[in-house]
Amino acid sequence: MTTKRIALVGAGTMGSHHARVIAQSADADLAVLVDPRESVGRAVADRFGASWAPELPDLAEIDGVVVAAATEAHYPLAMQVLSQDTPLLIEKPVADDLLRTEEILALADAKDLPFMCGLLERYNPAVMTARELMAEPLHVTATRHSPYAQRIRTGVAWDLLVHDVDLAIGIIGSAPTGVESRLGHFHPDSLADAEDVAETILDFPGGAIAHVSASRVGQRKIRQLSIYERERLIEVDLLRRDVTVYRHVSENSVDEGRGYRQQTVIEIPELVSSQEPLTTQFVRFLDVIDGRVDAAAERASFLPAHRVIDQVIARRPVLQA
Q1: Which of 51, 144, 192, 285 is the most exposed place for a label (fewest CB within 10 A)?
Q2: Are 90 and 74 in contact (CB under 8 A)?
Q3: What pTM did the predictor assign?
Q4: What would the mean pLDDT of 14-37 be, rounded to a whole number?
Q5: Is the distance from CB of 48 to CB of 17 less than 8 angstroms?
């Protein structure tokens, strides 16, 4: 593998993490960091040995671009990168609506370019372990709740729910055939069209179902995933990055007093990886660029979750003029 020259757009919190991961890679160099704020951009660029630019430069000497800018900037940046025939890893969501997302992916398809979306939970070691353990998932539940964050202006559907919708689709193995959702607007500081709670039910071919819950009016951070099979329950804590497998053995009435005695076998498997998810994701991006991962299949994997979120936010109330 030749060392890849990478351009990074965005020097915020997520951009700084990407800069660290790229700079630490033995197979890539952080060539340029792009951010319109010179003081912020230069500081991050200097920290990781990159040059700074206020806007995206000519990409003739760049092997790949990572976009960690604000969501509303994704569409023009993605189109600019892809129009220069350059592989792209863009933070989720791909764009701020489905039509723009489909246009971006259509251009990447037309040019057959390596393309990834930063649905980072795919690379959580606990999720990767659970996916190797599971056999026939029938029912998936996911909870992603957080305290309110003033800086996040989009609703929870694009910000939080999309992660677990993507996980549910990957676990079940197909796009859903039905989407039911309820949205809640509660916080006085939220924009009128930015939901604070989203409860979603997904129906899948063969009868599998998923219940996905996202909230930003919680008082603690919760990231839980449960995968139910006929004979097992696989529970995943995405924050602690651990997996517990439960298999019910028997349940008997207790002779003395009131109650029952339940016997359950509990397994705690070893994780398949200890690597930071952002690093695992970047390694995969390099693999897509070098052809070790099917680029067409990778591109196609991101659209189903975006289509579900588009249906979820269609539940938003119509704003009166």
Answers
A1: 192
A2: yes
A3: 0.93
A4: 97
A5: no
